[in-house]
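Teaching note: in complex prediction, the entire set of molecules is handled at once rather than each chain in isolation. The prompt given to students was simply: 'Predict the structure of this complex.' The entities are:
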Amino acid sequence: MYDVENSIGFLLSKGYQRAWALLREEIEQYELTPPQFALLAFLWREDGLTQTELSEAGQIDRTTLGGLIDRLEKTGLVERRPHPRDRRAYQIHLTTRGRELEGPLSECATRTLARLTNGLTETEVSELRRMLIILRGERTVYDFPAC
Amino acid sequence: MYDVENSIGFLLSKGYQRAWALLREEIEQYELTPPQFALLAFLWREDGLTQTELSEAGQIDRTTLGGLIDRLEKTGLVERRPHPRDRRAYQIHLTTRGRELEGPLSECATRTLARLTNGLTETEVSELRRMLIILRGERTVYDFPAC
DNA sequence: TCAACATTGACAGCATACTGACTATCTGTA
DNA sequence: TACAGATAGTCAGTATGCTGTCAATGTTGA
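The expected output is the structure of the full assembly:
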């Protein structure tokens, strides 16, 4: 009999939901959601990317990203600026407020990680991270049998 | 600087998205989504639960579950029957077709797991499962400081 | 019995995530 | 230059997941 409860997919979805809920609690006061936080975090590293570039960097769907930016623009954390050499594109820039949040929000993320991985040792967390990276992006010849 | 890309939360969300996409591919022919599959899998184990019971068993939000059942009812895989002793509640039952899908869909799930964990050894998959279980449900005194 | 409280499921509303279609614009080539 | 094809971003549509609210029904205790 198929054991959903212990399947990797089911456990990933529940782990993800727990991570989301914990981070949500920590950043609630800033009226942000976890994906919005993640997008800001990418911009802290590199500002002024186009939506397509951001979408690739953050592995976020192009249309999903559009909505995220709409909402972050409405709360005044980022702004769309016309691209100087491509009239189709926008460059997404942090506002001053968006940049100022890096410190406090990073602390929220650190607290969240601590709560989330409360039951694991540091070594286990590193192992988990390594395995999740493999899960996410594993690209072997087997993935592209036709190539 | 905060490193989103290697944070456990970000990696969980991407791993989950990949697991979803792979399973989606495998079960597409049955016109099912991964959460719908998971719900069926709980019913294969125990049929006739109420929505609240199913919601607890599957750790699925009560209102989300309502929608899932609506759609599975529409595609003829489950049906709502009035609860014999509680006029507020329904018992959710598999239809014949819903029961028949257990074999083929379980195979889809097995193939999905193989593709998802392609880059990991069997031992690593077990380790990953163990750690995800801890992540999901870790309940220590620290989670309930007020109790 | 009856009033207070709890539970069940529905509904509205919002944010994410993805598909497919569309417009505007850019690029490469004849 | 002019045109075919590629690319940037939007929009509509659908499913999930969650919050809050509500009506109907159950349950419990005075």
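Point out the following to students. The CA atoms of residues 16 and 60 of chain A lie 16 Å apart. Residues 17, 20-21, 24, 50-52, 62-63, 65-66, 83, 86-90 of chain A lie near DNA strand D (CB under 10 Å from a C1').
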